[in-house]
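FYI - complex with magnesium ion, inputs then prediction.
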Amino acid sequence: MNKETQAQETQAQETQNDKSSSKDVTVKISNLHKVYSRDKLAVHVLKGIDVDIYRGTIVSVTGESGSGKSTFLNLVGGLDVPSRGSIVVNGVNIVGLDDNSLSRFRNTQLGFIFQFHYLLPDFTALENVMLPYLKMKYDKSEGEKRATKLLNDVGLGKRLHHKPSEMSGGEQQRVAIARALVNNPQIVLADEPTGNLDEDNSDMIKKILWELRDRYNLTVLLVTHDLNLATQADRMLKLKHGTFMNKTEYFKND
Ligand SMILES: Nc1ncnc2c1ncn2[C@@H]1O[C@H](COP(=O)(O)OP(=O)(O)O)[C@@H](O)[C@H]1O
Ligand SMILES: [Mg+2]
């Protein structure tokens, strides 16, 4: 690292420290490493990541293909286990939780949005959104109420009874966003949510994510290679050589 980059890093770190005194840390990641072994070869993907994610912020994660963005998101989401380090979510270190606690953590605190929506083809929008709620708590009328409200939030109040094949790609992704929120998560993890959409639909998804963040005070980790989207986040993290290069922050209200 040259002197200039070092100075920038220190400056970014200081800015971050200033913010942390006034902001609530939702996810605190310390010394996070991930090593995969493939054909007896160790691939060291994440090499000691330290970052605090503040409540109510949208943080974009960029980086070249293969840089470890999905690996990072999957670790934060408890879908994979780190080789070293800790991930403290709302005061609880999720590393080392048993399978039951981890799946409870995922179901109650996290909403996942992926590039492909994975909606169930034989179910309507309303049913697709309700399902994760019914898995947690079998209360059909409450599930319907929540799902209807969320589908209204994403502008699909008139598509409740449509099946995925009867909706456009952008609409399907909006159903997936509503589904991610049905259990009232505080944190949303999105992996290339606009990766499969054209520009107009990407803009729509962007608008919806920002609106939902404001409405529900969500903390959003947004993996994307779309720089247009990434630069509009409150903070942009760029993954390179296993760590975040910069910790640029764009706090809207400062
Ligand atoms: N389950 C796995 N086993 C072995 N290697 C993996 C596994 N998952 C990812 N990798 C490797 O880790 C690196 C980072 O992958 P990934 O996190 O998917 O990158 P990105 O999402 O930034 O494109 C890649 O070199 C990939 O091949
Ligand atoms: Mg990826």
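Residues 69-70 surround magnesium ion (ligand 2) (CB under 6 Å). The domain at 55-81+92-244 is CATH 3.40.50.300 (Rossmann fold).
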